[in-house]
Amino acid sequence: MPDSTFPIPSERPRRLRRSPALRALTREVTLAPAHLIHPMFVHEEATDTPIASMPGVSRHSLDSAVQQAGEALALGIRSVILFGIPAHKDALGTQAYADQGIIQRAARAIKAAHPDLTVIADTCLCEYTDHGHCGPLCKIHPNEWTVDNDPSLELLAQTAVSQARAGADIVAPSAMMDGQVAAIRAALDAAGFPHIPVMSYAVKYASAYYGPFRDAAGSTPSVGDRATYQMDPAGGYREALREARLDVAQGADYLMVKPALAYLDVLKLLRDNFDLPLVTYNVSGEYALVKAAAQLGYMDERRTVLETLTGMRRAGADAIITYHALDAARWLAGG
């Protein structure tokens, strides 16, 4: 017993934590497989290729992509997002908007096999250009190159229309070109796809956490970097709000914050200022760090992943793109 002079607490929050059932009864945040979006890399090869920097993730053949999409659906994951790695790359990224491009073929095959699954197409050019940037390059100084913004809009619009035509349920522009949402919305409407939503990578940072993705997609820039169009990590809240407001005004149906973990404050900022569905991207570097720590025995992978994803939901995410999706869905099913 405590000393009689020590104040006895009149409020006891621990009462509500005494058992798993009591804790479950008062939880404010839920995490379910339906909140997760499973990202998949699809290439032209006939077999899968493991990605060394992302243990457990592979570049999929078309058949394998269809199979894994079905696995995701069976686990209660209702959405996948597709990233394509073409056999041929060029300066204009022509395979991004080719009728028989790898993403177009994958979207058709997955929708034919799993019509109830939502297929999201990443709408960008970086995986398809031979220089690794998100649009055609132009020289602005003898030793300085940048992405030519306005010609890129036309190519991104063509890409979105070709993806919608192939059966994609949502297009997700990630190039961070000024005006990309308006260009894509106008092109979709003109092509007879006014019903296709635009999931905008509205607030996307020039992040070190993308390293494993660039390995997976073969999209490391051959010249310069992406800091002239992706956002500065130290840019602050005003820039984030401005980017999001521009995309809302241009017709975005979803807003996204990428990456997730280092930007949960930005995610909460958007949740407090906009009423559109909000997505966050638990990116490749975040995934790889957890995998590496778990393999070394430094962290409990299951608990770490579920805590991290729950934190993203608590910060305001309606949906989370995560390479942990399949494992997380299995863990959630197991209680």
TrEMBL record:
Keywords: Heme biosynthesis, Lyase, Porphyrin biosynthesis. Its EC number is 4.2.1.24. GO terms for molecular function: porphobilinogen synthase activity. Transmembrane segments: none annotated. The keyword Lyase applies. Belongs to the ALAD family. This is Delta-aminolevulinic acid dehydratase. It comes from Deinococcus oregonensis. The lineage of its organism: Bacteria, Thermotogati, Deinococcota, Deinococci, Deinococcales. The gene is hemB.
